[in-house]
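In this supplementary section we document a worked example of the pipeline. Step one takes a protein sequence of length 287 as its only input; no multiple sequence alignment statistics are reported here. Step two produces a three-dimensional model, which step three serialises into structure tokens for compact storage. The input and output of this example are shown verbatim.
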Amino acid sequence: MIRTIQRSGTAFAAVVLALLAAPAHAESGWHLLNMPVGVTELSKKIYGLHMMIFWWCVAIGIVVFGWMIWAIVAFRKSKGAVANTAMVHSTKAEIIWTLIPVAILVAMAVPSARVLIDIEDARNTELTIKVTAYQWKWQYQYLGTDVAYFSTLAHESNSARELQSGIDPATVPNYLLDVDNPLVVPAGVKVRLLVTAQDVIHSWWVPEFGMKKDAIPGLVNEMWFKVDADKTGRYRGQCAELCGRDHGFMPIVVDVMSREDFDAWLTARKAAVKQAAAAPSTSATIS
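The serialised model returned by step three reads:
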């Protein structure tokens, strides 16, 4: 019995030491087990809150299980300990073990409330995009401009997913995670998304952004993100709400550009829209 307890105590201590040493070796695998940090302002705040709660739980576990193991070892029968069957009441003890959890909950609740308020604070956004979900694609509309387009599963993935296509999915880059027209946003800019749907409930989710928002018919939900200025690149997500038999075939891809590249892209898109709008009237005039 004693050897079992000692081995359990040694194993518990090893786990605690590994957890304490983990932050120093984040690149060696800890980040694969833990929540990702993300590339946005909110994702970092959420990660910080997550780690704070995690270490609080670790500390509570050390105190509770440490005290339990000490009591088991120190007051074991072989040392002559005798169970006290008499009920012992202590008002002071009850007050202490009530106040301590309350203090811990308050210490957790205050920073949690701050992060929740930040998540809902969409003020001072510089770019607003309406996201409309369909079975099974996304539509992006840049409000204040005429730029709007659909984003659907990339042709290569769509062909490979078909039965008896003869295409090995392993040969398709980013299989089922690529689209024909990604959402394009600037880095270092607070972007607001107005998320809704036209048919059934969907959910817009990009893991690296740390945010997910349901797209509900007849309702407009709001979310925002601000990608770090040095985190340009391509980020992938998926619909996170079961929306029908092809639910797994409506991925999300976001291209994060520098502000200058985004302005150039948006200008080109606006020019293409104007050119497309002018083409029918020109042909009608010639005829």
